[in-house]
Amino acid sequence: MSTTAPPTGKARSRSASGRAGDRGMNRIFRLVSTWSGALILATLAAVAIFLVLEAWPAISLGGEELGEQISWFPEDTSIITFVGPLIFGTLLAAFLALILATPLAVGVALFISHYAPRRLAQALGYLVDLLAAIPSVVYGLWGILAFAPIVYPVWNGIAETLGWFPLFEGPAADPPRVMATVAVVLAVMILPIITAVCREVFLQTPKLHEEAALALGATRWELVKTAVLPFARSGIISGAMLGLGRALGETMAVLMILSPGFLYSFAIFQAGQQQTIAANIAAQQPEAPPLGVSALIATGLALFVITMAVNMAARAVVARRKDFSGAN
Amino acid sequence: MKLSRFSRAGAATLAAGALAVTLTACGSDDPVGEAQAADGDSATTEMSDLSGQLNGAGASSQEAAMNAWRAGFQGENPDVTVNYDPIGSGGGRTNFIEGGTAFAGSDAALDDEELVDAQARCLDGEVIELPMYISPIAVIFNVEGVDQLKLDPATIAGIFNDEITSWDDPAIVDQNPDVELPSEAITPVHRSDESGTTENFTEYLEAAGGDAWPHEASGDWPTEGGQSAQGTSGVVQTVQGGSGTIGYADASQAGSLGTAEVKVGEEYVPYSPEAAAKIVDASEQIEGRGPYDHALELARDTTESGAYPIVLVSYHLACATYEDQETADLVKAFLGYVASEEGQEISSSAAGSAPISDSLRADATEAIDAISAQG
What we know:
- The complex is a heterodimer.
- By secondary structure, chain A is an all-alpha fold.
- Chain A has one domain (61-324): MetI-like (MetI-like fold, Orthogonal Bundle), CATH 1.10.3720.
- Helices cover 75% and strands 0% of the residues of chain A.
- Chain A contains twelve helices and no strands.
- Chain A has helices at residues 5-17, 24-60, 63-69, 79-115, 118-133, 136-161, 179-203, 207-215, 220-249, 252-257, 277-284, 290-322.
- In chain A, 40% of the residues are buried.
- Chain B is of the alpha/beta class.
- Chain B is built from 13 helices and 16 strands.
- In chain B, strands 1, 2, 3, 4, 6, 7, 8, 9 and 14 form a nine-stranded mixed β-sheet that branches.
- In chain B, 51% of the residues are buried.
- The A-B interface holds A 3-4, 6-7, 36-37, 39-40, 43, 71-72, 144-145, 148-149, 171, 173-175, 177, 197, 200-201, 204, 235, 238, 255-256, 259-263, 270-273, 283-284, 286-290, 327 and B 1-4, 6-8, 11-12, 15-16, 18-19, 22, 60, 87-91, 94, 185, 187, 192-195, 218-220, 224-230, 234, 237-238, 241-245.
């Protein structure tokens, strides 16, 4: 949503200044880009309208009616108590993934931009981008067939030693079709996008700032700390938010790895505790009755709103930080 | 600044890509339109030779068998195209009732309300329901050093209801005196999606498990928490991937996993196609339905010797009367092929289903012969 706002502003100023020479290719290009911009807005509006219209039957009906007509709808509840645990699970998965991926991504990006020899940096950059090209179903397969069998002893060890902490409550499930496994796989999936954004921002650090820091006798670490990171803060945040957006909507990997449950539970090593909205839609939609599809779309509407809120929040943070980042 | 320009362009490309995907998705499926087009074309061709397009949809449990049937049938009738969309039993019944498809596959028989609608769809004629796909559900387990396991219904219910939690529980040990059972925790694995397999398995537990199974039968697993996985292959993988796991899945997908022998009457019956077909013959038909409606009340708690009670029975739904000759001929020929010995043989080798018995075949043939066009 918010990503579309700047281009329209720009298009307006460009067309105003270039009105006199608005002929031939100029005119065609202006029309094409204006319509492309409008199309995105229209698509978004169409999606929003579709979600509201399709979800309406489930939202307007009482929980009792829904429970009667949909076999998997919990009885004696409303649509809100149905969506609640799903929102919780979605946010838990996404934030865990973000907590794991962001520091790693910043580290990788710093290595590429400021530590690695140029050739190695280039190769590494390609490799990280390549991670983004792997389809999520492949990540899911990898997670469940290759990663899960190896990771059980680790989860079990953490659950046994740190089990007093609610997040790590044991006993760890075997096979580890649990939130912790999902979070790690999601973290790998969002790593490339965060890394790519961070790397670009780190490379934008004004050479003068860096040289000034070095001239003052800063070490490499002090250079990064005083010149690069403050400059890049908004970029890191927007990269993380892009990653969060992907993690929120990830379906296939979660569907394949997680043993779902509908509880407000922080136990990430136990099976059957949480479920995400996207995976739940994919799991239930094929056999759902019409009203069930409507209830699922209502959860999709919730996901839509969450994702939009996350994006807007990120934009707001980036916009607020821009003035202080030293870019100007 | 460079960065922000880049990311905007990226966002625009993404959105355009997503839009393109949405548009293609919308345009792809229109079974009704295609069916009508096919009908229109073929009106000019000869009636004797079968040709045209037959559309069906429904239970995904039948998918493997249906692929085999389609291939076999199209091999015999090269001008015919049979389509089957495995959208699920509920969707299959709805599509059929709304007239979108000529036949449907469904893991459950039509309920009374649907039956009324289906009769209207069949031009107020008879509705045909034939249980021609019988698939045994195996109780699969993965316990180190254990190849054989005998379980009675109450024990199975106790295990899946998390009441029996260790493999050396007396309830299991007593039934398996010759087996060395470890003192390992039991991890039951169930389906995470709504499925006919779950519905049939819980129906069995409800009917035969007695007090050990306090839940109602349903396509969704009734208890909270625990291990679960998407689809049959997911359950099999999860049982395989863990230790001390037990689950339920289509017998044909059990692979190298151990399968439990289930107590029926006084004996333990391992699953086999013949044993599964036997339970269908031992079951009564639901009363008060049309002459061609072979909806069954499966006798899950049977004591019939040698019958394996955990089966998934999937129906083929069709009409006795269709609007046009073309569709009637196609449905008649196709279902006739499915019911034939050859057809049942093919699905048995492709999907591991149990071939129907001769008495059921006689009933089915009678119903299929009655299919005709509106006079």
